[in-house]
Amino acid sequence: MFKDFYSIITFVISGAICVGLIYLLYNKHLNTLGFEESLKKLTSIYIGISGFLSAILMVFLATSAMNQKSYKAKIIHKISKTTQKMHNFRTIAEILFNSEIWLPGLKDYMEKDFANLSYFDVKEFYKGKSKLAIEFLQETHHFGETENLYMELKSLLMTDPKEKQIPETIDYPIFYKNDIIKKWVEHKSGSGLWYVFGYKYGNYKESLNFEAVFERHREKILTLANTIDNDIFEKSSFNDVFFSKLWEHLTKDVIPKLSQFQSLIDRKTPRLIYYLYIVFLLLMVFGVLVPITYLMLSFSVLAVIVSYS
Predict the structure, then answer these.
(1) Which domain holds residue 145?
(2) Is residue 309 a part of any domain in this protein?
(3) Regarding predicted confidence, which is higher, 155 or 34?
(4) Position 33 confidence tier, pLDDT thresholds 50, 70, 90
(5) Helix, strand, coil percent content, the chain, rounded in steps of 5
(6) Buried b or exposed e, range 119-145, using 16+ CB within 10 angstroms
(7) How many distinct structural domains can be found in the chain?
(8) CB–CB of 10/17 below 8 Å?
(9) How far is CA 56 from the centre of its chain?
(10) How confident is the model over 40-84, as pLDDT tens digits?
(11) How confident is the model at residue 4 (pLDDT cuts 50, 70, 90)?
């Protein structure tokens, strides 16, 4: 608001000075003999100065545009790598979500009674937007509190926070939407999984049957983890320690970077650059083109007076 106010004040002052100069110079032209000839002599110098300043601005703006393009290319490369890591995490989440690690009846319970409830709704129950979220929190859970883990995994498979049910074929977009990234960051998606496997696994051990995960799926999960970060997961085994590191890495590294790079790529061109484009245009029109036209076609002296102003 204040920036816009200052811009308006600057525009008004500049306009007032311009009008004042036009009035003074035109009045001088009417009352001073030979004033137009003096203006003609100065016009060549004026064109030279304006052309020189325009050239400097043109080089600066061209360099700025190239730097911005190069910067965005680097950010796109980084966000592409991070997006691929997120794809791998979501593939792991998909395998676990669709596996038989859950207690019997949990999937039916969640997909029938709370099919239209998302992890984000539960996290935002205090806003009072979802009665179902409040019902869920008041419900007596009979699945060893794994309902929350189920919903958290499900949230990682979403690509839109408004989704309530995930599609049969999980979408892996080129870039994730800002809306879903913001929700992942806001509610620290993955942190609940990290906490359970890192600190409370003993309480959940009887409720999560990892022996039910097929051998080929275990190998795929470990391979994906190595692809995400070979240094962290190189010698990992399929156990609670591995999953603790996995979800910690997602929560502390991948999702924050995804958010950071996305905000950088969405960053707008500085307002100063737009102002410089306007200055460049004004210099070219009123500092070069109008004076040259005045000299070549003998336009009214008012044209060059406006140009000077």
Answers:
(1) 86-265
(2) no
(3) 155
(4) low
(5) 75, 0, 25
(6) bbbbbbbeeeebebbeebeeeeeebbe
(7) 1
(8) no
(9) 32
(10) 777 777 788 888 888 888 888 888 888 888 877 787 878 889 999
(11) low
State how far the Cα of 182 lies from the Cα of 207, in Å rounded to an integer. 31
Structural domain contains residue 219:
yes
Find the angle CA(209)-CA(210)-CA(212) to the nearest 5 degrees.
80
Q: How confident is the model at residue 35 (pLDDT cuts 50, 70, 90)?
A: low
The count of other CB atoms within 10 Å of the CB of residue 106 is 19
> pLDDT tens digits, residue range 79-100?
889 999 999 999 999 999 999 9
Contact present, 121 and 133 (Cβ < 8 Å): yes
Report the alpha-carbon distance of residue 3 to residue 182 in Å, rounded. Answer: 27
Indicate whether 278 belongs to any domain. no
- Cα distance between residue 189 and residue 187, in whole Å: 6
Unique residue bearing structure tokens 């051998």: 215
Query: What would the two tokens of residue 129 be?
Result: 């937007």
Across 264-285, b (16+ Cβ under 10 Å) vs e yields eeeeeeeeeeeeeeeebeebbe
Maximum mean pLDDT: which of 55-59, 163-167, 216-220? 216-220
DSSP letters spanning 24-86? HHHHHHHHSTTHHHHHHHHHHHHHHHHHHHHHHHHHHHHHHHHHHHHHHHHHHHHHHHHHHHH
Residue 153's pLDDT band (cuts 50, 70, 90): very high
Residue-level pLDDT at 303: 66
Residues, the chain, total? Answer: 309
Q: What backbone torsions phi and psi does residue 242 show, to the nearest 5 degrees?
A: -60, -45
Identity at 166, one-letter amino acid code? I
Does a structural domain hold residue 275? no
How buried is 96 (Cβ within 10 angstroms: 0-12 exposed, 13-18 middle, 19+ buried)? Answer: buried
